[in-house]
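Project standup — Tuesday

K.O.: blocked on the structure for the chain from last sprint. Re-posting the sequence here as requested.
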Amino acid sequence: MADIRSYMKEKEKREKREKKQTDYKEKIARHKLASVYRVILILVLLAAFAVFLVVQYRRRTYTDYDTIATIPRESVSGATDVKLGSAILTYSKDGAHCTDSRGSVTWNQTFEIQDVILARNRGTVAIGEYNGRSIYLADSEKLLGEITTAMPVRQLSVSENGYVTAVLADTDITWINTYDSSGEMIRESRTHMDDSGYPMALSLSPNGELLLVAYVYVDAGILRTKIAFYNFGRVGENYSDGLVSSYVLTDTVVPYVGFLNDETAFSVGDNRLTIYSGGYVPEEAAGHLYDREIRSVFYGDRYIGLVFLSDNNENRYQLKVYDTESDKAKDFYFDMDYTDIFFGRDNFVIYNEAECQIMTMGGTEKFRGSFSKTVRLMAPVGNTYKYMLVTDDSIDTIQLK
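H.V.: unblocked you, prediction finished:
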C-alpha cells in the first residue's frame, strides 16, 4: 500500500514538473512569437513610412531654385555648348575646347571648319567638316587623336571607346569606313545607290561592337529602307561582311537611328519608330506607327521622345514618349519653345534660354519657371532635381526648392 502511495506521490510530482516545463516552454514560445510580431509590425510601419516618403517626394512640386555654386567662365562668340559626359564641350568654326565641372579647361583644339559635323557618344566626341578630310577625336578629359580620310566626309558616328565610322563620298560610290582612335582603318565597305542603297543615317553602339546603318533605295519603283546591323566582334566573324541582321521597311525613309545602350537601338522613320534589342544580333522588339511629321527626336538610356505639332487646339506641341520597357507610349502637351529636351530616371526636362518645364512620366508637373540668366545649356547633376546651367559668364549649379 505504501508503495502505491509513494508511487502516486512521485507521479504527481513528475506531472507537476512536466506541467511547469510545459508552461515555461509555452511562455518562451509566446514571447518569441510576440517578438516576431513586434519586428513584423516595425517593418510594416517602416515600409509604410518609406512608401509615404516616396509618394510625397513624387507629389512634391517646386516653385523656385537656389544657386548653390557658381564658377566664372568666358563665352566664345558664335560658339555652341553641348554636354559631353559630365563636362561641357564648346565648339565653333575656329576650334573646340572641353571644360570640366570645376570650370577647368581639360583640352583645347584649334581648327578652321566652315560646316561642322559633330558626333557624340556619352563622353566621347568626333568633330569633322562636311566635305572635309580631317576628324578630331576626343573625350571629356583629353584629345585622343586626328583621323585623316582619303575622301570627303559626309556623315560621322562615334563610339564611347573611340571608334569612328565615316560616310565618305566618291564619284559614284559611297564608302562607309570605320577607324580606331589611332586613325587606323578597321573596316571598309562600299555601297552604291543601285546596289544596297545610300546611307541616310548611321550609329555606333557605345562599346563600338555594333554599327547600325539605314540605307534608302528604290526597288521596282518602290522606295524602301534597309536597316542593317554589323557586328565588329567575334560574332560578326561568322557572317558575311559582319552583317548579322537586317530589316526592310517599305515606303519609309529613315533619317535618324541611334543606340540607347549596348543592347538597345532604334530607328525613326517618317511613319514609324522601331526598337531593336540584342547586343550581338539585334532583333525587332517593338514598332510604333504615326502619320504626322516629326519635328524633333530626343532619347536617353530608356526613353525615346518624338515631338510633333499638337493634335489639339489647346497646345502647340505634343511629345510622345516611348518606354523601351513598355509597349505603350505616353502623350504630353506643352507650349514652350524648346532648345533641348532631356530625360531623367522618371522625368523629362524641356528648356530654352529663358525658362524650363519639368514633368514626371506620371504626368505631374514638378517645376515651371524662368531663369535669372540666359541659359546656353542645362544638364542634370545626379537624380535629386539638381542641375547645371551654363550661361554666358558662369557655370551655375542650382537646386530646385
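K.O.: great, moving the ticket to review. The first helix runs from residue 2 to 59. Helices lie at 2-59.
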